[in-house]
Amino acid sequence: MHVAIVGAGVVGMTTAWRLASEGHEVTVLERRDGPGEETSFANGGQLSYSYVAPLAGPGVLSKVPGWLLRRDSPMRFRPSPDPAQWRWLLAFARACNAGASDATTRKLLRLAFHSRDLMQAFVHGDEASRGGAGGHVPGYRDGSGFDFARRGKLIVHRDAAAFDAARRLLDYQASLGCEQIALDRDACVALEPALERIRGDIAGAIHTPSEEVGDCHRFCVALARLLQGRANVRLRFGTRVTGLKRAGANGDTRNTRIVGVHTADGDVDADAVVVAGGIGSVPLLRPAGVRPMLWPLKGYSITVPIADGTRAPHISVTDFANKIVYARIGNTLRVAGMADLVRGGPTIDGERVAALAAQTQAVFGIGGADDTAALQPWAGLRPATPSGLPLIGASRVPGLWLNIGHGALGFTLAMGSASLLADAMAGRRSAIDAHDFDATVA
Length: 442
What we know:
Layout: E1 2-6, H1 10-21, E2 25-30, E3 46-47, H2 60-69, E4 75-77, H3 83-95, H4 98-123, H5 127-130, E5 149-150, E6 153-157, H6 160-168, H7 170-175, E7 181-183, H8 185-191, E8 204-208, E9 212-213, H9 216-228, E10 233-237, E11 241-247, E12 257-263, E13 266-269, E14 272-275, H10 281-285, E15 295-305, E16 316-319, E17 324-329, E18 332-341, H11 350-364, E19 378-384, E20 391-394, E21 400-404, H12 410-426
Parallel strand pairs: 1-2, 1-14, 2-10, 4-18, 6-16, 14-21
Antiparallel strand pairs: 3-9, 5-9, 6-8, 7-8, 11-12, 12-13, 15-18, 15-19, 16-17, 17-18, 20-21
Enzyme class: oxidoreductase
Keywords: FAD, Flavoprotein, Oxidoreductase
Protein name: D-amino acid dehydrogenase
């Protein structure tokens, strides 16, 4: 079967790799000049398999008024006259309850742990998981080519009540398969001495030894290099998809079948089309009668060079109060955070970048904002559903498949999502319940 995949971010590239490894003819279509150049380019870099709780949690709505009043708030909202934004917000509000949040967390954990197993097999050279890809990519087998490492993760709490609440969840998290340990202030700093600077502010921390990091963009590049030499794969970068090619429509979307895509360079015929284009999927799908409820959550990052002797963390750190994550990727410290519910493209807000730089300086004594260009500021549009559940599988339109809506968890969930999609296309039973991510709701 010939499958056309729209989008070469981490979700699109893992989907291409998985389908190609199963013998499908695959064409990847990407408007950028290479893979992973948009939302996958400079994300947080943390593969946080045990931390996938949705943004729509039971305590979120009560925090929103305070967040809206703070200029340095971790979440910003700019009202838009677009009805789609208000539909998304209403659905998000309905999901902000303990029952829905717990159910979503359980589903996402299953997908995350499946992804973790597949990434481990990929990195450690399991030929079956690698799809028997030929050729040699330096650093591929051990993950060094994209700075993959198991560093563990510390969720640092500055507020005693928040730390107590996190400790009370440990047994519940353990019942879901998470391995976590509560640490007091001294044990936290002993484990990660780079936190000495804020020792007095730390109420405690939750340590998860199994969490990993990697450079998502370089991972996408590695996948592209693996796929380039395969006879059944075509990578068409710099190709803008302008629409879905329909057959039997006659103006009636109910009788439509997708048989390929239209591009600025001509049509590409395919037996199936997988849309994995992040937030750009929304306008592409609309003419086919598919309307996924996605909204962009703009996130920001800076990448701080680590000089010799610099006190930067070796363990991934999340500052719970400020909603900022820190990950050592190679010889740099990736600092990421914020969620801006705004329209428009991934323009960089200097105030947000300055806030990340100031926090990094305050916590670790590095990354000051004197020269923001040296910090490689970046912004990306994370495609989020109100519930936090991605849409994976066949859509309501024959021939059209979706792998979208992963929000801030694209890197974490990509391997498992690609596996679920490939299973669905083959009519196989998946390792986890694929109905949890039903794409026909769009």
